[in-house]
């Protein structure tokens, strides 16, 4: 009897460890989400009314943005626990790869950290019979500038300095420009190891938009998904960049905040010109995203962000991940699952997962429009 009780306690402790470590594991685990329900043994972490399975059935494939991977993994686990007849699999790759897959008709929806360009919308008409692709803002959050410098726990940078680091102009951590922003910090002469994304990335494009808006003299490149600057080292996906920063002394890189949080990577506070440097937190990102305006037309809800904001406590280096769907002409075999799954992610329970796990929910006024559009998909 004592042995049985001991084994039960051990199993309970292990179960708690698995649950508490779920977010950490998503940052470096497989993109195969089919095991999200633990073989049917785990219980949904949702109230019964939080997910409406409706006509959802079969397998729903999706791909794209790696910045939202941690949120999507949690969404899928909860959703599949509630809707046992649906299998959702999200391949975390890059925004560019997701859009290509969507326009080729191989996925039910795609994730992108930058709104579709006109030529991509035009291309989507081949996959969306009688319709076209639209942008639905679903995930917000700060793009963290993560660093790993021995002996340095706190670091403040401004946009021109960030630009010059990633443009290979500032090469040592004790450079005068960095020292000026960090009085009293003992900065070593360690060489800077800057890491960027190897594949087309919406996160890269958002960093480029921020630097172009705030440090154009130091960042003479147009914002694009492909990394534009010389020097530096490339890694695949947000998880890959984060892993390189974590293991390399002198490293700096950019990735969605949850990748820094899950791996214990220190992040830069940004000197925006406000009274105090602004840390990369979901709350501070929300202050910047709340000022966004809808720039899309009709059912398209693409947003215009103010990367140059100097509002107190607003972290300006943010991204919004869009789920890309057909407004009309979605495939009949996946339409039910697309509407059901995105209805959950845009709902109160789905958005709460964001604020609980290092992301920023979409502002309520915009999110209401997202729900209405999801309900209208055909």
From TrEMBL:
This is Phosphate-binding protein. Residues 1-27 form the signal peptide. PROSITE patterns: PROKAR_LIPOPROTEIN. It comes from Streptomyces bambusae. InterPro entries: ABC_phos-bd_PstS, PBP_domain, Phosphate-bind_PstS. Residues 56-347 form the PBP domain. Belongs to the PstS family. The keyword Signal applies. It holds the Pfam family PBP_like_2. Coiled coil: none annotated. The lineage of its organism: Bacteria, Bacillati, Actinomycetota, Actinomycetes, Kitasatosporales. It comes from the Bacteria. Keywords: Phosphate transport, Signal, Transport. The keyword Membrane does not apply.
């Amino acid at each position: 009897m004592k042995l049985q009780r001991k084994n039960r306690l051990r199993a309970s402790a292990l179960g708690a460890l698995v649950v508490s470590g779920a977010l950490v594991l998503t940052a470096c685990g497989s993109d195969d989400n089919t095991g999200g329900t633990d073989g049917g043994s785990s219980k949904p972490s949702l109230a019964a009314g939080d997910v409406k399975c409706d006509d959802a059935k079969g397998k729903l494939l999706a791909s794209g943005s790696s910045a939202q991977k941690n949120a999507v993994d949690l969404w899928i686990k909860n959703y599949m626990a509630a809707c046992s007849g649906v299998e959702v699999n999200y391949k975390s790759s890059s925004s560019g790869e997701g859009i290509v897959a969507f326009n080729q008709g191989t996925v039910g929806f795609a994730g992108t950290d930058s709104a579709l360009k006109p030529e991509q919308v035009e291309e989507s008409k081949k996959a969306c019979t009688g319709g076209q692709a639209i942008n639905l803002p679903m995930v917000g959050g700060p793009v963290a500038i993560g660093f790993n410098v021995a002996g340095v726990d706190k670091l403040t940078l401004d946009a021109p300095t960030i630009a010059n680091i990633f443009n290979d102009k500032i090469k040592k951590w004790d450079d005068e420009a960095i020292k000026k922003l960090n009085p009293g910090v003992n900065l070593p002469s360690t060489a800077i190891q800057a890491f960027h994304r190897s594949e087309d990335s919406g996160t890269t494009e958002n960093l480029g938009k921020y630097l172009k808006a705030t440090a154009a003299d130091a960042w003479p490149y147009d914002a694009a998904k492909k990394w534009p600057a010389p020097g530096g080292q490339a890694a695949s996906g947000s998880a890959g960049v984060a892993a390189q920063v974590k293991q390399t002394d002198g490293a700096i890189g950019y990735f969605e905040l949850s990748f820094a949080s899950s791996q214990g990577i220190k992040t830069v506070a940004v000197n925006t010109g406000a009274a105090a440097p602004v840390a990369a937190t979901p709350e501070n990102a929300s202050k910047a995203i709340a000022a966004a305006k809808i720039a899309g037309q009709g059912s398209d809800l693409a947003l215009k962000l103010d990367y140059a904001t100097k509002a107190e406590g607003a972290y300006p280096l943010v991204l919004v991940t869009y789920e890309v769907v057909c407004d009309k002409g979605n495939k009949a075999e996946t339409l039910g699952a697309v509407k059901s799954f995105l209805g959950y992610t845009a709902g109160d329970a789905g958005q709460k997962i964001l604020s609980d796990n290092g992301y920023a929910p979409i502002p309520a006024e915009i999110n209401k429009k997202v729900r209405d559009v999801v309900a209208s998909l055909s």
